[in-house]
């Protein structure tokens, strides 16, 4: 049976409220607005504020590795379809999580946020993973590297009373069809590809 860490009530209410987006807001603007609403610093010109410690209780300002953006540009420019672009995003997130592990130092992040790791340096829960992944995606979009997707506001699932623990993920949407996809590295160790699956399917998982 999976065990989950205990969060402050304020964090849980934030998770539940993340599903609401402002109608008519541009996708990039919505993602940036989310950072401001949560009290986090949005990414800026390659600098991201990496969240860790669970619930973004610890933060470290880092610059994206100089190898990530050129590699990301090459992968994304070679992607001729939405499916190929998602494959590229998975590879870019893989490299990014490996970089964050190096930057943070200490014990590498344990997948699935074991409760005993709460508050520890370098350990990330779904809140941290979502903030960090969304930062990367916003950086890619701001550089015009996403041809087939836009970055959306993070989304959540689980409300306790439906028998599921709250969980949150970064989201991208296909520009043509509008189909939304979860980009979720929470179950993976640093340096492994994230889960990328239709948001509707992600919402059914527990």
Automatic annotation (TrEMBL):
Ranges where the record places region Disordered: 103-124
Organism: Microvirga brassicacearum
UniProt keyword list: Signal
Residues making up the signal peptide according to the UniProt record: 1-26
Protein name per its UniProtKB record: Uncharacterized protein
